[in-house]
Write a structure and sequence with these properties.
Blueprint lengths: L2 E4 L8 E5 L5 E6 L2 E7 L12 E6 L17 E3 L5 E3 L15 E4 L2 E4 L13 E2 L2 E9 L1 H7 L3 H15 L9 E10 L15 H15 L12 E6 L11 E5 L11 E5 L5 H12 L14 E2 L2 E3 L4 E2 L5 E3 L2 H12 L23 H4 L2 H8 L21 E4 L2 E4 L9 E3 L2 E4 L2 E4 L27 E6 L16 E2 L1 E6 L11 H7 L5 E2 L2 E2 L2 E3 L12 E4 L4 E4 L17 E3 L2 E3 L26 E8 L8 E8 L4 E7 L6 E6 L5 E3 L9 E5 L2 E8 L2 E6 L7 E7 L8 E8 L8 E5 L12 E5 L1 E5 L3 E3 L1 H7 L8 E5 L8 E4 L18 E3 L2 E4 L20 E3 L16 E4 L5 E2 L17
Parallel strand pairs: 6-21, 7-14, 9-32, 11-12, 11-13, 13-15, 17-19
Antiparallel strand pairs: 1-2, 2-3, 3-4, 4-5, 5-54, 7-18, 8-9, 10-26, 14-15, 16-17, 20-21, 22-23, 23-24, 25-27, 28-29, 30-31, 31-32, 33-34, 35-44, 36-43, 37-42, 37-44, 38-39, 38-43, 40-41, 41-42, 45-47, 46-49, 47-48, 50-52, 51-53, 54-55
Helix pairs in contact: 2-4
GO molecular function: metal ion binding; metalloendopeptidase activity
Cofactor: Zn(2+)
Subcellular location: Secreted, Extracellular space, Extracellular matrix
Length: 872
């Protein structure tokens, strides 16, 4: 490590932060002054490695020698879209919706995301800490030499800033817990770094996983691994690729990784973009619902990084993707806070102050040749950085980094050359008010209403923290059952696409269910011929049941638990008898298997009859077969499923007043009917040709006949609330009538049937403390309206609120308090006399370590303002 922190000897309130990686760079805060030190750009290191340093306070800044432009020098633009992200929806690498169709026999399936099992799902903004491993390959060491660590810290500081941008809608902190600098002789056989982005990513992901301590509380354990190289990496989009990553790989040890090409300060955007993929974000395109830019603001997840950009921000789609990723519990590894002494410190200075315009030119054109320098005027570089190379004065249409000097006492901020000033104060975000409840998403069958609030009172700014807490809340509405025969909510959503054209054809769509997929909130639909299966839109609408037979609902694309009490995230469940919160004593479960030899070669064979009122009916084949399951009304003989030699496709079907789910996957059938059924039903097996009965398992529950007599008895209830909060009160335990299964019942039951005598009430004293007398409540002093006053003027006044209150802090008439003890309400402000004399800036001192030579200059510099416009 070459980064140090401490204080000035004899001054504990001072602060010193220095880096000695390549000369001394840092800041000294002492009393009311701030001093900066850095190696001089005008002197080469001495033979023994010593540097000439510049020491200056924040009102002085070294003036660089500005290059002289030849008036007739021709400038050439290299106008092109800088580069592309190589991350594609590769089914081997991404947890993204697949772009192409996948053929599975007759069925054309457009694939979907694979979601792992996860922890609690709530729409809560929580602090997330991304602990990063940063790896620099030998090409980085060759180019940056001893400065590689400082350079990467500067880049990751910009990455951290971009993840604090409020448009991301979450509290994200990116920290470095480990940095590995690879020399040529340190490369391992298992780590193969080449120009092939995909191959390098696969190799790096495996290698970093072996380097990662398994315990999350290990100070060297990382959540994401970042490889940085100066190789010109190539992917599907060609060699303009800047980075590649695994979509949705965060918190998956072998997939939370990315490969990033160093092309200068914009490396920060590349790393930010690729970590975004790890968070489950996809590229911003019209197809995904977001443009790649909003006016002159470029979205960070644009597939192509454009140079002519002033600002960058996260799109609504990116905010949606990362919020859903975290709400699903997929970012659980980010919940632990890093140990302070295990985290690398980011530089205090902005990137442009760490690396001047000449150095940025060499970074952009991948050269260490010191003849490559700026060839544009200082006031122009904030918009476009022009550089002298062997091809002349050319540009890649990138601006100089924020903090780059652009004139006397000026630097670049937001692509403008502005006066240096103190950095803006960080403003932490605050929650606004909750919105009104939304309209219910359904008119029957249980829908969802929602309330939301935004982190905009105030919005976080200048690197301030994003709000933490609940951002949305939900309640169930319109729980009355829908009329019999009405389509299910999921079926209505599929039917809304009946006029859509898919692959040049129009279809009639029905819901498709696949019990093997852990994605019940994706809206999959199939045509009535069962030839095409496709996901429509992002997710099923809020209030869509996750699965038949449960109250769980899709909310924001996530399957949320809903109790039988119709409360979101409730743990109250029905027992197998259909009793909410019951113990299963009111029904019995019948199970069996029909496996006997059937004496017919083809047709319908009755297996069993299930009585009306049955619940949790499950019928499934013991093995895959060519046979089918059929269901009919026992009395009318009409079929609900697969009757009259007409075999239906998998889907939802109404069976005896209950919506059932029929599934057939690879010739293995399963039928689930939640119940309760309103009619007796008969289960059939439909034999086809020479195929024998291979077994049919069944299970259902029936209500038991309750003959137990109720037993009533008296008991004392809980203590009542005290009748007074002070000066003594009373509380009581009163007799109540109780029945074991019914709980508290009318006293009349016990008066006639109780097995014991009614107990007497118990009385107890409480809150004997004396009530405090009325007293004065004193508010805080308000701020003075001025910071100084002119000589001879009256002293300015400050005020505070005074109220008479009781012991519960409730306001009383002023007359009830002792007026003699009333505190004063106004006071004079202790502010100095106004002084119009301006301070004269101190001269800058340049100190040579070897010769004690002193130079002076009159430029000034102040600390870093947040960077928000570096181009990806």
């Amino acid at each position: 490590m070459c980064h140090y922190e401490g204080h000035v000897k004899g001054d504990e309130s001072s602060k010193v932060s220095l880096s000695s990686c390549n000369g001394i760079v840092g800041m000294i805060k002492h009393k009311n002054n701030e001093y900066y030190i850095e190696p001089s750009k005008h002197h080469a290191p001495s033979s023994h490695g010593g540097h000439t340093h510049v020491l200056y306070d924040k009102t002085a800044l070294k003036q660089n020698n500005e290059p002289v432009l030849q008036k007739k020098k021709r400038r050439r633009r290299r106008r092109h879209r800088l580069s592309n992200c190589g991350t594609k929806a590769d089914p081997k690498r991404m947890s993204e919706t697949l772009i192409e169709y996948q053929h599975q026999g007759k069925v054309i399936v457009q694939g979907g995301r694979k979601l792992r099992k996860h922890r609690e799902k709530r729409s809560i903004s929580s602090p997330r800490h991304v602990e990063a491993l940063v790896v620099a390959d030998p090409s980085m060491v060759e180019f940056h030499e001893d400065n590689v660590e400082t350079y990467l810290l500067t880049i990751m500081n910009l990455v951290s800033t971009l993840y604090k941008d409020p448009t991301i809608g979450n509290s994200i902190q990116v920290v470095i817990v480990r940095m590995i600098i690879l020399e040529e002789d340190e490369l391992h056989d298992t780590l193969n770094i080449t120009e092939a982005a995909g191959t390098t990513l696969d190799s790096f992901c495996k290698w970093q996983n072996t380097m990662n301590p398994s315990e999350d509380d290990d100070p060297l354990h990382h959540d994401v691994a970042i490889l940085v190289t100066r190789k010109d990496i190539c992917a599907n989009s060609g060699c303009s690729t800047l980075g590649v990553a695994n979509v949705g790989g965060m918190c998956k040890p072998d997939r939370a990784c990315s490969v990033n090409e160093d092309s200068g300060i914009t490396l920060a955007h590349t790393i930010t973009h690729e970590i975004g993929h790890n968070f489950g974000m996809v590229h911003d395109t019209v197809k995904t619902g977001c443009e790649n830019r909003n006016g002159r603001i470029l979205h960070i997840m644009t597939p192509s990084f454009e140079a002519d950009t002033v600002h960058v921000s996260w799109s609504n789609c990116s905010r949606r993707d990362i919020t859903r990723f975290l709400d699903q519990g997929l970012g659980s590894c980010l919940e632990d806070s890093p140990l302070e002494d295990s985290v690398y410190e980011y530089p205090d200075l902005p990137a442009g102050a760490m690396y001047d315009a000449d150095h940025q030119c060499r970074l952009q054109f991948n050269s260490t040749d010191e003849t490559i320098v700026v060839c544009s005027k200082p006031e122009e570089i904030c918009q476009t950085l022009w550089c002298t190379t062997s091809e002349g004065c050319i540009t890649k249409l990138r601006p100089a980094a924020s903090g780059t000097k652009c004139g006397h006492h000026k630097w670049c901020q937001d692509q403008h050359c502005v006066e240096m000033d103190d950095p803006p104060v960080k403003i932490d975000g605050g929650w606004g008010n909750w919105s009104d409840w939304s309209e219910c998403t359904r008119t029957c069958g249980a829908g969802i209403q929602s309330q939301v609030r935004f982190c905009d009172h105030p919005s976080p700014a200048n690197g301030g923290e994003y709000c933490v807490g609940e951002r949305a809340r939900y309640k169930v509405c319109n729980t009355d059952p829908c009329p019999e025969g009405e389509q299910s909510f999921r079926a209505l959503q599929c039917a809304s696409h009946d006029n859509d054209t898919v692959k040049g054809q129009q279809y009639t769509w029905l819901p498709y269910f696949d019990s093997r997929k852990d994605e019940p909130c994706e809206l999959y639909c199939t045509d009535v011929e069962d030839t095409v299966i496709i996901p429509f839109g992002q997710f099923a609408a809020d209030g869509t049941p996750c699965r038949i037979g449960t109250n769980d609902m899709c909310i924001g694309g996530i399957c949320r638990k809903v109790g039988c009490d119709w409360v979101v995230d409730s743990n109250t469940t029905e027992d197998q008898c259909g009793v909410c919160g019951g113990n299963g004593e009111t029904c019995e479960t019948i199970t069996g298997e029909f496996s006997k030899k059937v004496n017919i070669s083809e047709g319908y064979y009755e297996v069993l009859t299930i009585p009306s009122g049955s619940r949790h009916i499950v019928i499934k084949e013991s093995k895959a077969s060519k046979n089918y399951i059929a269901v009919s009304n026992t009395h009318t003989k009409e079929f609900y499923l697969n009757g009259n030699n007409l075999i239906l496709i998998s889907g939802e079907y109404e069976i005896a007043g209950s919506l059932g789910l029929y599934e057939r996957e690879h010739e293995l059938e399963n039928l689930t009917i939640p119940g309760p059924t309103k009619e007796d039903i008969t289960i059939h097996i439909v034999l086809k040709g020479k195929h024998k009965n291979i077994g049919l398992k069944y299970e259902y529950t029936l209500p038991t006949i309750q003959t137990k007599e109720p037993k009533y008895y008296w008991k004392l209830g809980e203590w009542t609330v005290c009748s007074s909060t002070c000066n003594g009160g009373k509380k009581y335990r009163l007799p109540i009538c109780y029945e074991k299964d019914q709980g508290i019942v009318s006293d009349e039951k016990c008066k006639e049937f109780a097995e014991n005598r009614r107990p007497e009430k118990i009385t107890k004293s409480c809150n004997d403390i004396p009530c405090p007398s009325p007293h004065w409540w004193v508010g805080p002093w308000q701020l003075c309206s001025v910071t100084c006053h002119k000589f001879g003027d009256p002293d300015p006044i400050r005020r505070r609120s005074i109220m008479c209150v009781d012991q519960n802090e409730i306001a009383l008439p002023t007359a009830q308090c002792n007026d003699q003890a009333r505190p004063k309400e106004t006071d004079t402000c202790n502010v100095p006399l106004c002084n119009t004399t301006e301070d004269t800036p101190n001269d800058m001192l340049e100190i040579d370590n070897n010769s004690n030579a002193i130079e002076s200059s009159n430029d000034s510099n102040e600390s870093y303002s947040e960077i928000s416009n570096v181009i990806e």
